[in-house]
Amino acid sequence: MFSSTQIEALQSALVRWQKRHGRHDLPWQQPRTPYRVWVSEIMLQQTQVTKVCDYFQRFIARFPSVSALAAASEEDVLSYWSGLGYYARARNLHSAAREIMKVHDGQLPDTLEALVQLPGIGRSTAGAILALGHGKRGVILDGNVKRVLARLLALEHWPGDRTMEKHLWQVAEQLTPNHDVDAFVQGWMDLGAMVCRKGHPQCDICPWSPYCRARQRGIADQLPVPRPKRSKKVEHWYLAVVRNQHDELALIKRPRTGVWGGLFCFPVVTKAQAQRVIAQETHILTHKNLVLHFVEVTSPPLADWSVAWYHADKALSLGLPAPIKRFLQRESEQ
């Protein structure tokens, strides 16, 4: 680990750097409230900052408070999340807002124990809410922090390994100060995003460079060790594009669990039912690749599907998976 002198030096160097060079104008920082921090942290899971910025502004304009989010329908929440992916995040956010209204009088909790009891909030997200939203000591270990620590410690193992992650939590706990914790935590995020970047670390301008073991060994650009590769499963989905006499399209709502849970989609049929392929694209998910075939079908079993009918342009306001939204956008432009 580190000596107390090294810890103090690392803490002060990062806080000083963040105040001078860190990010201070992200949408959720102006103003910075527990609710805005929470929403941004959930959006930033698995999603790049540049993409989140636009979605965050739109989402907050529609749901400016915990109470507004809790009062909305799940369908409305999903429609404003459409395109961000990982839709369980939106459903958990919505469920948590309702629980906050019911159990916490509409106020986001300010203890780790209470925060991690809410749907979709894990230990690191709770730490960010505590530090950035409430100004209390909170410890984080997101992807940026794991990368920074993997280089700082010159870890020659994948940092996502369970044993390694446990070790990194211990180091993160050790390094997180009791004072200036908001600047420290934001600085850690900024350092990983701006300086200690994936593949191209800018060691010459890093405030932790004097203490970085990977730099000392000349292996910073080789770390962190990547996750062991696993072969991805490929699935073929045949999506039935069915129109009625009013040129409306048949859509169904996906089950709450599984791929695209709770979103509107074309009905899935078998390859044997597909008559003609209209369009095709590959959609990459974390755990599998979907090859989507948009098809015409003969004698669609509409009675079995529980469909809702929408014109393409009207359907765009629904909660839709990105590939379905792209297809409907093309349809509405024709």
Quick description:
It contains 15 helices and seven strands. The chain has 334 residues and is of the alpha+beta class.
Describe this structure in words.
The chain is α+β, with helices and mostly antiparallel strands and 334 residues long. It folds into 2 domains: 4-222, Endonuclease III, domain 1 (Orthogonal Bundle), CATH 1.10.340.30; 233-333, Nucleoside Triphosphate Pyrophosphohydrolase (Alpha-Beta Complex). Helices cover 46% and strands 12% of the residues. It has 15 helices and 7 strands. It has helices at residues 4-21, 34-44, 49-62, 66-71, 74-81, 88-103, 112-115, 123-133, 143-152, 162-175, 181-195, 213-217, 302-305, 312-315, 322-333, and strands spanning 233-240, 249-253, 264-265, 268-269, 274-284, 288-297, 308-310. Helix 1 crosses helix 11 and helix 2 runs antiparallel to helix 8. The chain is globular, with a radius of gyration of 23 Å. The mean pLDDT is 96.
Which structural traits does this protein have?
single chain; 334 residues; alpha+beta; Endonuclease III, domain 1; Nucleoside Triphosphate Pyrophosphohydrolase; four-stranded mixed sheet; three-stranded antiparallel sheet; 7 strands; 46% helix; globular
What is the string of SSEs from the N terminus onward? Answer: HHHHHHHHHHHHEEEEEEHEHH
The CATH superfamily of the largest domain turns out to be Hypothetical protein, domain 2
**Number of separate domains:** 2
Separation of the first and last Cα atoms:
62 Å
Mean pLDDT: 96
Q: Sketch the major β-sheet.
A: 4 strands, mixed
CATH C-level label of the largest domain:
Mainly Alpha
